[in-house]
Amino acid sequence: MYTQESTRAAARGLIDAIPDVVEEFRCPICKKASASYDSLRRHYDECHQEDIPPMMVALTLNGRHTELLVPQHWSLQRALQFKLGLTGAKHMCDKGVCGSCTVIIDGSPALSCTTLVVECHGKDILTVEGIAADATWKPLVDAYCRWDAMQCGYCTPGFLVTAKALLDRNPNPTIEECNEALAGNICICGTYPRHATAIVEAALKIAEDSQAKGGAA
Amino acid sequence: MRPFSHANAQTVHEASVQLSSGNAKAIAGGTDLLGTLKDNLLPIYPDKVVNLKAIKNLDYVKQEQSLLRIGSLTKLSAISEHPVIKEKYSALSQAAGSVATPHIRNMATIGGNLAQLPRCWYFRKADNRFNCIRKGGEECFAILGDNRYHSIFGGSRCADTPCMSQCPAGTNIPAYLEEIRKDNWDKAAEIFLSAHPFPMITGRVCAHFCQSACNRHQTDEGVLTGGVERALGDYILENSDKFYKKPTKETNKSVAVVGSGPAGLTAAYFLRRAGNKVTVYERMDCAGGMLRYAIPAYRLPKDIVEKIISILENMGIEFVLGHDFANGITPEKLEKEYDGVCYATGAWKRPIVGISGEELTVFGLDFLVEVRKWMDGKVGEEVLVVGGGNVAMDVAVTAKRLGARKVTLACVEPRERMPASSEEIARAEAEGIVIMPSWGPSKVIENNGVLNGMELKRCVSVVGDDGTFNPQYDENEQLVVSAQNILLAIGQRVDLSFLGDKYHLQLNERGLIDVDADSQRTSRPGVFAAGDATTGPATVVSAVSNGKKAADGLCLHLGISTQQDNPGGCASVTVDANGITCTTSLKLRELDINKRTLETEDSQTPGVQEAEKEAKRCLNCGCYAVSPSDIAPALIALNAQIVTHERTINAEDFFNAGVMTSTTLGFDEIITEIIIPALPDGAKSVFKKMALRKSIDFPIINFAIVTGSEPRISLGAVAPHPLRAMEAEQVLRGKTLDEKLAGQVGEAAVRDATPFESTKYKVQILKTLIKRALLELA
After folding, report:
1. How many domains does chain B have?
2. Across the interface, do A94 and B696 touch by the CB < 8 Å criterion?
3. Looking at residue B564, what is its pLDDT?
4. Complex-level ipTM
5. What's the CA gap between B189 and B184, in Å, rounded?
6. Residue range of the domain that includes B208
7. Which of A146, B357, B529, B702 fits a disulfide with B689 by CB distance 3.0 to 4.6 angstroms?
8. In this structure, are B606 and B640 located in the same domain?
């Protein structure tokens, strides 16, 4: 049975499983293993001159420093899903229209389907799993549940990431500001009326929580 | 996406070098390029993607004295939220803030927005399903397709239309059709005559490559350009004084043209038009060459040819008829006595086949030339014509109309490869001529010098592996066709023996006069050549085409500039929104088969209404997709400059609907900065966008207005590139804004709109939103 706690733990597990370094340099074409990236590149120069070799990308993901070995043409969404098992950023329209793949890159919400993973070298990325694993954002998840701002749930991670990014830069948004920030997230089930209310309620609770901890809101 | 390799450019120069080497595309925000790659909609998938985002110092907004400078890699979200831009350049902030979604605005750059590719749904269909004009193809699918989001101000001619490229004379067909549908017949005539002097001839006898190439064939029936051309030609003929005038200035140079067929007459016309003294020498008793002697009267009436000759005489061209080189004029003499010479002597010689009994057959061309003599009962009951081209068709139909009971036509080509045009084949078959393709001549069957018929053998292939004419036969498959006359129409040879042995004129390997392809210059200075004498038997229109080239080449040689004005060479093109919906083409009115004769024309010239209706079916092929950028109209209204690493361009001149581009940028040219001058005192700016949804969607219409003493209004998403609404600006300038004036400005902005049926709604929306925007500013 899914509870918030079990989901938070599962998200934490996925994040902990993000590898620090690339362990295996196996050629995707002929499956031959190489000891290092440089020797994999030499293998390509010798045996696969017509093909494009994968690249190494080092980035910070949900607070973990990681290195990935990825094809040069892959989107960030594809790398998250297939290299790291982080399926929160969804493959939906895959053309930058629906927002289901939203992640936060260097503090601002962006579309992982329209971002090349090789261009994320050195960047700081947060996915919905990072929000799920972080108890600070429990009020946002609570508010979404209380306001039933989801139906099939497929677009919900995208909305949550956009909402979190909004609250980061504007801790006290109006309903209109919420709707404007969410203008890039599509919901086919039609939950639109619920989100802004949930976010405003979450904002109030988060402000209350941080005051209670003794810090300024 | 299919794989590509990715490279980070560290500098603009490095990026430019990467883009110019091979198959590479630049990526900035990625919000345009990646979509095109995922949908595989480009004609060629790039091998390499060059990342511009690693280039430093292109992401900034700076105020320097009175100028606002924005780096090309600045994100749209930064631009829309920048306090200085919000306050002082509101149109730009509003435009940037209206683009797509907040997520995209966080990723997209202003440079990328300006350089984005069209968003037309035919252009954007996956897997390059529609290889349209903007991708290097030939057709705009929106014109007859679903064009509800397309232009209301006409299209953009990004490339030569297929009809123009297939016309050997390069006639600007869409331009003259555009004038005809506007009922400007005189302007249409001017456009036509600048390329080609005889539409009344080619309107009747041309093979009409333009018609076969017409893009409408893909949808319904192509435009009957030849019919419209014929109507225009007859109009020109009726008003010949207006159109064929003596030149205004004489050059005092003299030119001799040898041969008065279509090539010679065309060369003479253009040479005379340029002001030279022109003398045409003709071997036969009448002028016209093939036009007079070979093409039968039922296709081209002789009085038309005569009228043309007298028109040319009225222009001051001298004709010397019945003059053979045997009678004292030598090529050497011509060279000496004239400043230039042009040989257009055609191809009139009978080729030898080499079959036994050949001497009993008749050369088809002689038959046509002497047709009057044949009317005295020389044609037998059964006639066999050998040959598969238009001359053979003319010979066969003429023989039938002379009274032959049975006319058979045999040719080595299979039916689909017969050189004759489909119209001529249809005409022959309609009159009962039996066509036997893939049969070649074997031997003549005779009895003591009396012709009985011909033995034919099966032709199994016509063209060899190397593409040359090399018919192969199956000697075992034979049959005999009985005939009292055998007419051979299997081509003509060029006879240059009149030049004499001592006159050295270079010939090519086929024995034709060797000429330079662009100028028709021969190996002798000042001597040019045109027509069948240089190409072998071809078409009237190709004779006209190289006749003109020879005239231009000769004028250049004589130091005379031929004004290469191109009346009607406009880049902006329109259609008749209603006229294009007619799916059936004009058909020429033709005489019943049993009423046809040798002397009267088989078909009639279309009337003015019919011709205009057919001209309205022309799609005026060009791109009718709209410019999708929201930033573009704001920059144009703000009078911005766009800086690349090579030059600075005013925003108004920056956008251009071209093949695989929306700008005038070179393929390796990179935008670095946008510079916006301060608005004049008291001026305000506004940007409005109307889209289906408040967010995500591309504009249905958008526009930007800058008020003040020099108002500027720029319209986007209503034309292939953003427009300045000059007339609307004039209405606004210097007046106090009230509701009535605001309405007038809106109306002025849409006055020249020429929408399709499904884009009419855009006109109302644009007009109304302009009015509202102005009233908000007041």
Report:
1. 4
2. no
3. 64
4. 0.96
5. 9
6. 162-242+569-574+582-619
7. B702
8. no
